[in-house]
Specification:
- This protein folds into 2 domains: 14-120, Ribosomal protein L17 (50s Ribosomal Protein L17, Chain: A, Alpha-Beta Complex), CATH 3.90.1030; 141-202.
- The protein has helices at residues 14-31, 38-54, 60-70, 73-87, 120-126, 142-201; strands spanning 33-37, 95-102, 109-115.
- The relative contact order is 0.08.
- It is built from 6 helices and 3 strands, in the order αβαααββαα.
- The chain is mainly α.
- Strand 2 (95-102) and strand 3 (109-115) form a beta hairpin.
- Helix 1 packs across helix 2 and helix 1 crosses helix 4.
Length: 202
């Protein structure tokens, strides 16, 4: 029984397995993504993530420890020059495994393992996402909530002016109303006199 043995031997002896993982780690650092089986990708993730964490501190000691794992001075240079500055703000989880289906020959489960900070498409999609508060259910941001408040203040300032104008206008109408009504009454009297004259003529 193999209870508690978490290492996947991948059907290889220790020397063969270490050499394979070292080569895969160098390829991942150089190309930023590689295609392999899911089992190998999971083993590679456990192998390379401590190496990436070690590369954050650029010292001779760190470079020698990383070289012990990679055994490739070009990969070490690439790691400390290009990869380390990009992953400096990330606290672990440097790689991503994306499953791509099964292989035709032996039906093995295939995947693509990549460095998270070098996938530009996913980084561009993640940037425009805006933070939404849990309180607002309208789908607006905090800025949109502030805008109506400013409008209400402006309306509150404008309302007294409107009331003053409303008070002034009826006064003017009252002054004008008697002038407008006087001619109408005269016309009515003229019409009444005209009707009386017509009756007398008849």
């Amino acid at each position: 029984m193999r209870h508690g043995k978490k290492i996947n031997h991948l059907g290889r002896k220790a020397a063969h397995r270490k050499a394979m993982l070292s080569n895969m780690a160098c390829s991942l650092i150089e190309h930023k993504r590689i295609n392999t089986t899911v089992a190998k990708a999971k083993a590679l993730r456990q192998y390379i993530e401590p190496v990436l964490t070690k590369s954050k501190t650029d010292s001779t000691h760190s470079r020698r420890i990383v070289f012990k794992y990679l055994q490739n001075k070009y990969a070490v240079t690439e790691l400390f020059r290009e990869v380390a500055p990009k992953i400096s703000d990330r606290n672990g989880g440097y790689t991503r495994i994306i499953r791509t289906g099964n292989r035709l020959g032996d039906n093995a489960e295939m995947c693509m393992i990549e460095l998270v900070d070098f996938n530009e498409l996913m980084l561009q999609e993640a940037k425009p996402a805006k933070k939404t508060t849990r309180r607002s259910r309208r789908g607006g941001t905090a800025k949109t909530d502030e805008a109506p408040a400013a409008d209400t203040k402006a309306e509150a300032k404008e309302e007294p002016k409107a009331e003053v104008k409303a008070e002034e206008t009826p006064v003017e109408e009252k002054k004008e109303e008697p002038k407008a009504e006087a001619p109408k009454e005269e016309k009515k009297e003229d019409e009444a006199e005209g009707t009386e004259e017509e009756k007398t003529e008849e």
